[in-house]
Amino acid sequence: MKAKWLKNRLLTAAMAAMMLHFTSCGTLLYPERKGQESGRIDATVAILDGIGLVLFFIPGVIAFVVDFSNGTIYLPPGEASLDVPNDLAAMVAIRVDKRALTNAHIELLVRQHTGRNIDLSSPNVKVTRMDAQGGD
């Protein structure tokens, strides 16, 4: 009887320790970040921890606590979140006469405004014409 009780307690403690370790996304994804004290919060880690919070409340809370206490939820200095390059972070609207919207003209506009060449006729590009635009 005592052996079964002790075995159940040990299994429960082991499961709790594993939950603490495996529910903290930042600690698993970025172990090299351990020890950071503050900084900008990594949106990827926060979203993953938040999903854990929504789906399973207690493991989600544990994930946030572990990631904050380890410092793995913070971005290293000089890094951006969600792997968005800085030159793509700002979007610019370009007004164009809709009669000039040919593939060649769109490729030219993209090259002029971004310095990048695109090929809309490439097989891995899907071009879709929209029927209506909002705001005009």
Strand count, sense and barrel status of the largest sheet are: none
Poorly predicted runs are none
Separate helix tally: 5
Q: Please give the share of residues in helix.
A: 40-55%
**SSE pattern, N- to C-terminal:** HHHHH
Number of strands: 0
Tell me the Rg in angstroms.
25 Å
Give the tags.
136 residues; mainly alpha; 2 domains; 5 helices; elongated
Describe the model.
The protein has two domains: 69 residues, no CATH class; 39 residues, no CATH class. The chain is 48% helix and 0% strand. The chain is built from five helices and no strands. It is an all-alpha fold.
What's this entry about, in short?
The chain has 136 residues and is mostly helical. Helices cover 48% and strands 0% of the residues.
